[in-house]
Amino acid sequence: MECSYTLLAGPPDLDEIRRKLKEKPLKASPVPEGEDPWSYTRLLTVDYAFETETVMYDLVKNKPKAPSTIIAGNFSFDSLHHDLAGGMLCKFRLTECKTGNCGNVPDVYAAFVQGGNNIKEVLYDPTQFPGEEPRWNFLYGIINTLYTPAENGAGDEQTVDTLYGKCKVHFSRPEDKRFRRTIKNCDIKSDLDYSRIGGLQPVNYEQDATYLQNMKIDADIVVIEAVEIVTFKSPFDWRWGFTVESRTHVEITNRTMHYVKRYCEDNQTSADCAAERFGALSVGHKLYEKVLLGQESKKNELHKLVGEYRKHLFEMGDSHTCEKHSSMFAHIVREARHSSEADWKAVIMNPENEPILHVLGNVLGSLGNSQSLKIAREVLFEQGPEFLEDYLFGAAHATSTDEKWHKQMMYWMAETKGDKTKRFWKIANTVATILRRRCERTPSTQNACKKGKERIVVKFITDISDCKRDRCYLKALQVLQNIPVAMQVFAPFFNFLGFFSIEISILPVLRSSPWTALFQSQQCRTDGSTSCD
């Protein structure tokens, strides 16, 4: 079969060409004559207006009357560099503060992967406010809303590390040019003190951000609507606490294209370009590790507060207690959260503080983090073994759910195992109390502990129940009373009942424990009763 094609063409329509040129004349080359065109690139400056409102409330019904803070103004987004790996460098800078409460806000640089907006590294300009450490502000909040901590190319549904802990991140496109990202179901970490209110800890974090693009060609984000929610609760009563909710609206106001000489070579990564070309300093990667949260930095006052406590104790006498004692103790704990190892060492080694080292042991335990355990073991316990119980008492009352601290406590317990001396059982009893609080933290953790899916709890039970002598079994049961979860978790470790002479001694322990059903069944086996339904 033969195919024939006919090309129909005629003379060009000169009038049409002239009309189009008149409407949109050809622009001269943006590259100056004599310059290498490859040394120039197209960069953008996009101006945005923003407004964010943060409200704090105890119950949703009280939200309309709750106090709130509004920050509004303008900021610009400058694209600065594109690297060969698909990365892009941009700069965020505050151009106008309309509400007058923006504070000192240095320029912030963000290195991210184009297409997915996957954040890689965040940096700041240290020259604008010399001597000031990077502190969380609304620009970091906008960047945290705009860019995702998810990994590029790993799917629309991921579980990743975020500023608040390990969270589920979901990306979707509800309709053309509209995108949505949600962050929820977080396993909140407690190694940072997010609250100025003692005794409370974050229990929930959620983010819901929607982005609208103007067109597929330029793909500029023209509108951002975002809601962030953080909930704080007391571990002792879930009715005590509050929720902080922030709503942010960002809208484009202007878009300008520039043809400029390249700031960096193509083979330089975006983060390297920011550091080498613009002198920016890193504040971290996905987690903004070096950005300070909470109150403005000030000179650490641990030494001063400990001195005031010591003076009050001497003036009132050892046997005296008053409300001021607990208040001063709380202030020491709060300041201790921001104290370095050097600060602690200076306080503990100060001969004047020897009479209150027991109190400092309580403080270190109350902090509930791996650094406090390290200081206690390497510094405090060197002053005397009697301070062990002070640390353990504070640790047993700590509200921290810091995963790293829990593991370090387990490692410490394992180191002292040996032939299971008194020291081992003291540490084990405290670890059991800590793990009990871990299990009772949320309905999810309660369920995980009941079903034996909380690995650290199962590991603890296994280690404690690894006994060869009757007295060890009795001690193990006394410790395990602190973790009253479902019987199916513990059943394998009670098989020894009825086979050891110690069982009569064990039954009173079971009688006073949460395991009433187990006690009744073993009582039946022991006394030979047949009516034990």
TrEMBL record:
GO biological-process terms attached to the record: lipoprotein metabolic process
One Gene Ontology cellular component annotation held by this UniProt entry: basolateral plasma membrane
GO molecular function: phospholipid transporter activity
Superkingdom of origin: Eukaryota
UniProt-listed InterPro entries: MTTP (IPR039988)
Protein name: Uncharacterized protein
